[in-house]
Design goal:
This protein is an alpha/beta fold and 280 residues long. It is built from 9 helices and 7 strands. Helix 1 (14-24) packs across helix 7 (223-234), helix 3 packs parallel to helix 4 and helix 4 (97-125) runs parallel beside helix 5 (146-166). The radius of gyration is 20 Å and the shape is globular. The model has no long low-confidence stretch (mean pLDDT 94).
């Protein structure tokens, strides 16, 4: 029986959607959360097929303990979903250093630590799936979320390299890039005070915050439909390397990539001309 290890189990988010989809398939689920008590009622409906564990993904020791408990309980981890994360908003110049570091600790370095804890078991069995939840912001930088975008770009680069490194061990790697989905991710914006340190950007940052508050509860993406698309992709004989979720996200990524291709071709001469002359 397949066992899933899913981080970021906040009710109403992608983590729960993955967990429910896995359970519908008859699989086992380990779901982690910073506040596991919020999952008590949910877990009670699924008996011994579910293990809920407390986990702050920025704590390396907690990660190792959670992975060890999961492997002891179910015998191994077959699918890892790196889902935990959140966005801090602010300008690139004016975001406080502490927020920059918190963003990377949560959105990037936690991914690396969880991978390092889970991969030895998968390599030993020579099978498994890694699903890294990135974002459209990992393919197209979002003004006001520069450091979130940077962390997700880093996840994208890591995932590209990881895919090739793990292929000889029979482990598949998928990057998932959602656009705006109706989770609780936007709900905290109304409760957080601005921490922008450069006053020149305040009008812009305030407009970003207002836009996120206005969108809360109206995001077009459905997490459950998104997860079904991911699982369908994983079931393909030749799974994709990545999947963008959401119509607006798809359009944004397509526009970004088409623009990059156009610019690349426009400057092909400059690119090729940077080499030593032929024969030297």
């Amino acid at each position: 029986m397949t066992t899933w290890f899913i981080t970021g189990g906040t009710p109403g988010g992608f983590g729960i959607a993955y967990a429910d989809a896995a359970l519908e398939r008859g699989d086992n689920v380990v779901l982690t959360a910073r506040r596991p008590k919020l999952l008590t009622d949910w877990a009670a409906h699924h008996g011994d097929r579910v293990l809920v564990l407390p986990l702050d993904v920025t704590d390396t020791e907690q990660i190792r303990d959670a992975v060890r408990m999961a492997e002891d309980h179910f015998g191994g981890i077959d699918v890892l979903v790196n889902n935990a994360g959140r966005g801090w908003y602010g300008s690139v110049e004016g975001t406080p250093e502490s927020d920059v570091r918190r963003s990377f600790e949560l959105n990037f370095f936690s991914v690396t630590e969880i991978l390092r804890a889970v991969l030895p078991g998968m390599r030993a069995r020579r099978s498994g799936w890694i699903v890294n939840m990135s974002s459209v912001a990992g393919l197209r930088g979002v003004p006001g979320f520069g450091y979130y975008s940077a962390a997700k770009f880093a996840v994208e680069g890591l995932t590209e390299a990881l895919r090739e490194e793990l292929a000889p061990f029979g482990i598949h790697v998928l990057a998932v890039e959602p656009g705006a989905f109706r989770t609780h991710a936007y709900a905290s914006f109304s409760d957080e005070s601005l921490s922008e340190s450069v006053s020149a950007y305040l009008p812009f940052v305030e407009s970003v915050r207002a836009a996120m508050i206005d969108q809360d509860g109206h995001q077009p993406g459905d997490p459950r439909r998104g997860v079904r698309a991911v699982l369908d992709a994983m079931d393909q004989e030749k799974p994709p390397r990545r999947i963008v979720l959401g119509a607006a996200g798809y359009d944004a990524v397509r526009e970004q990539l088409e623009g990059m291709i156009g610019e690349l071709r426009a400057y092909e001469g400059a690119s090729r001309g940077a080499d030593f002359p032929s024969g030297r």
